Amino acid sequence: MRRLVALAVLALALPASAEDAPVTPNAIVAAAPAADWQAIDPADLLVMDLAPDRDGNPRRVVFQLIPAPFSQGWVGNIRKLAAAHWWDGTSINRVQDNYVVQWGDVTEKKALPNGLTQPGEEQYSEQYKGQIDHYGPCPAPRGDEICKTTERPADEAIAFFDNDSYTGNTGFYSGWPIGMKTTRAAPLVVSVSAPGSKRPPTDIPVQLDSTEMWPTHCYGMVGVGRNVSPDTGTGAELYTVIGQAPRQLDRNIALVGRIIEGMENLSSLPRGHGDLGFYADDEADKRVPILSVRLGNEIRDLPRFEYLSTESKSFAAYVHSRANRKDDFYIQPAGGVDICNVPVPIRRAPQ
Amino acid sequence: MRRLVALAVLALALPASAEDAPVTPNAIVAAAPAADWQAIDPADLLVMDLAPDRDGNPRRVVFQLIPAPFSQGWVGNIRKLAAAHWWDGTSINRVQDNYVVQWGDVTEKKALPNGLTQPGEEQYSEQYKGQIDHYGPCPAPRGDEICKTTERPADEAIAFFDNDSYTGNTGFYSGWPIGMKTTRAAPLVVSVSAPGSKRPPTDIPVQLDSTEMWPTHCYGMVGVGRNVSPDTGTGAELYTVIGQAPRQLDRNIALVGRIIEGMENLSSLPRGHGDLGFYADDEADKRVPILSVRLGNEIRDLPRFEYLSTESKSFAAYVHSRANRKDDFYIQPAGGVDICNVPVPIRRAPQ
Predict the structure, then answer these.
(1) How far B225 CA lies from chain A's nearest CA (Å)?
(2) Tens digits of per-residue pLDDT, B202-251?
(3) Which residues of A are less than 8 Å from B161 in CB distance?
(4) Taking CB atoms and an 8 Å cutoff, what residues of chain B touch A276?
(5) Integer Cα distance of B181 and A190 in angstroms
(6) Within an 8 Å CB–CB cutoff, is residue A52 touching chain B?
(7) What is the pLDDT of residues A96-151, one digit of tens each?
């Protein structure tokens, strides 16, 4: 995969004065101009209200549904389940340390609403014909600057890392962390002739790389529980990652979103002691009731949220900083970073 | 770093019959022979008893101190702090979601016992002259088998992965996850002559690679809190990782151990809402009191613990399985795995 990145070197424009430049990831995000922030449509949010905690504090979890082209079969189902108020009265049933929190119908007998689809396994990833824009560590010194390849036309997807432990490349697509695998196709030759022309056709070589892309199982990502393959789940049973990224699940389970607020209301729940971290029968009282799940545009006074565009220069500088910490606390910059250690910045929109 | 692994191909002996072979990581660990398990000396354990939870349930956390050659300055301090009962009456002061839980003296004024040392930054990693034994994915197909290089003499350290996001190689050293960076030294020439011989000396070339090794910040690893560099901390302020591995801290902070039992008593604590996830003044009641911290050999009836030897064939098969899930649930083996997604199996010793 190494051939995909850093073919040519064009240092990204960083702030002119090194002394004035924000050096920590947080400072870079704080200094990002308003234009670098992308609004999240409330219709793409789900709001899950859990029963209050023992002290009566409300517990709300907000998650963002993944946009097209990923996992749209399941996302469509989830919109229908929310519209049908299907999750109301269900519960959090599994909390496995360093793995996942899972919720849904503990009886596994609750009837599903009509109209759900059953997506196939092929929808775990997407295939593209075309070329993508690449950022990555410059050839030398390794990881010390972010470079951009200039040979290829830009697309929405940006690859940042060519040294992932699980796959050749990782990067970001419209604000989401993705894995990618690119296959260089054999060149096609297309014969072209002008209508009515008497000249012989001209042969034009066409190079169409094929890139497979899929969302990655990072902390806080939301996925679709399922039984043994070829079952792919409906979206009624959901989980979120609360530990080290279980990337072995990538392309084996549908990812449908990510928690953007209230993660602690899931990650700090007491762990279950049944098989796979499900609450055992004698700890059934730990199952937190789900009061309601609604789409964000049905919730009055929901804050507006926005994410830092992963195509922005601010984001590129943020990635660079996370890979090369040089602020006072650090003595040895890593020179690299894992895709799941680059959480996409998300915030409440300034009033 | 690619040159370090898979120079020659010798497939590890896996069970003869593919049909009988345990295929999941858990099944491989369960089938490991007793000889593959290594006892942990109780004198290398710390036992931290927290105040009981709201329902009166006891909360014990057991952690294992890292062995030589890593971080021994801080480990020595920690033994002295435990012997002095220094942590008794201190508390859990910080719970930052997807990052760390930290404990120690919230006042930062409690006097330290005499005799502590102040290790220097050079102790964040260790330098070796010599060569190490390497396992890794076979050249083709990628990641489908674990291979061993046969050209180099074995040592205690074994490198498994050459595609880490943060450093060239990762692997295991006596049961602990490590990062490594090997520098091939220029060959030395040593002149040798037999005592009393009248023959001219013989020139012998000697190749001594230099490998830097350090423990990695995986889930459950325990590190030493410190202020801004060049402060390196004493070991009185400790933290453990409760989210995605913050590997940028490797070689910037001393790692001194790992939680081996009771992790959920830390990871499920309520998150703090002050700066950096410290409990703010208005949530001081969330600070869980630490009743006592003792060395394991001072605790009556402490269970015996053991870990799966990282030099064993069972462990190699376990790594292979984690990188290539092919059991019924999986349709797409990853073909790779992150060092922090290969927790070293640790269990209570069978009675």
Answers:
(1) 11
(2) 776 665 567 789 999 999 999 999 999 899 999 999 999 999 999 999 99
(3) 165
(4) none
(5) 49
(6) no
(7) 999 999 999 999 999 999 999 999 999 999 887 665 666 554 443 334 445 554 33
pLDDT for the residue numbered B274 = 98
DSSP assigned state of B67: P
What amino acid is encoded at B151 in this protein? Answer: E
CA distance B22 to B30: 9
8 Å CB contact between B282 and B302: no
Cβ atoms B2, B142 nearer than 8 A = no
Domains of chain B: 2-186+212-348 (2.40.100.10)
Tokens of B183: 């520098």
A175 backbone dihedrals φ, ψ, rounded to 5°? 95, 5
Q: Kindly provide the residue ranges of all beta strands, DSSP E only, lying in B164-287, ordered along the sequence.
A: 169-173, 176-183, 188-192, 202-206, 210-215, 221-224, 238-241, 255-261
Residues 264..283 of B with a Cβ closer than 8 Å to A: which?
Answer: 264, 267-271
B 169-208 residues with CB < 8 A to A: none
For residue A159, give Cα distances in angstroms to A69, A126, A134, A180, A311: 17, 15, 5, 8, 10
Q: Which of A338, A347, A3, A346 is nearest to A171 (CA)?
A: A338
Is the model more confident about A335 or about A236?
Answer: A236
CA distance B105 to chain A (A): 21
Report the run of H or E that residue B65 belongs to, with start and end: strand B59-65
Shortest CA gap B194–chain A (Å): 46
Q: What is the DSSP letter of A278?
A: B
In one-letter notation, the amino acid at residue A293 is V
